[in-house]
Amino acid sequence: MKPVAVSDTSCLLTLGTQINATTASRVRAACALIEQRLGTALIDLVPSYTTVLVEFDPLQLTATQCLQQLADVPALAQAGEHDSAAQCIEIPVYYGDEVAPDMAAVCQHSGLSRDEIIRCHSAPEYRVYAIGFAPGFCFLGTLDPRLQLPRRAEPRPKVPAGSVAIAEQQTAVYPLDTPGGWHLIGRTTQDMLALCSAELQPLRVGDHIRFVPVARADFVAAGGSLK
């Protein structure tokens, strides 16, 4: 599919139709190609599940010129080409009842015990599919099918920062105190906002995250809140 202009200063590239690891890998490869092609004319890249939004400097490029320069990027962006550059971040998680108000509901829905849920959730290496909703909010997939359940019928008006949550095929960490409708099963002391804005190597779409269970004492010692 060819890139399309969505404004006088931006265009959209589509790299797939399904949300999966292959499409996410192609999105990452496309971002690298776009950065090479546009150079200083590139203002911003907004990668998502299946697309990349490109914002460019209209003083250096017209929309037509941008489309011409990026016309073959979807065809050239192959899965796996830039996966070796992806980083894997380990995030400590305390899964205790004090910070996991939805654990009982997840147990009931899945038929799994609390310990089994912790093992299922912490076993995979998740891929960052998109970053949005709130600064530093990473949509991670794919969740073990046994843990997949719909969002809560009634969203919470305030979810504490650091809450680890699941919904449908994804898991995430709430970076800030925000409303939210995902199921809360743990909490981390990792500052996701700082992780995504790090100067040297920020967390990006296509990177990986692994959750590491920690004991209550270690969570509290690291500054974790039980409230």
Automatic annotation (TrEMBL):
One annotated GO molecular function: ATP binding
Keywords: ATP-binding, Hydrolase, Nucleotide-binding
Domain of life: Bacteria
Gene3D superfamilies from the UniProt entry: 3.30.1360.40, Cyclophilin-like
Domain Carboxyltransferase: 1-203
InterPro entries xrefs: CT_C_D, Cyclophilin-like_dom_sf, PxpB
NCBIfam families, per the entry: 5-oxoprolinase subunit PxpB
The name this protein goes by in its record: Allophanate hydrolase subunit 1
Organism of provenance: Oceanococcus atlanticus
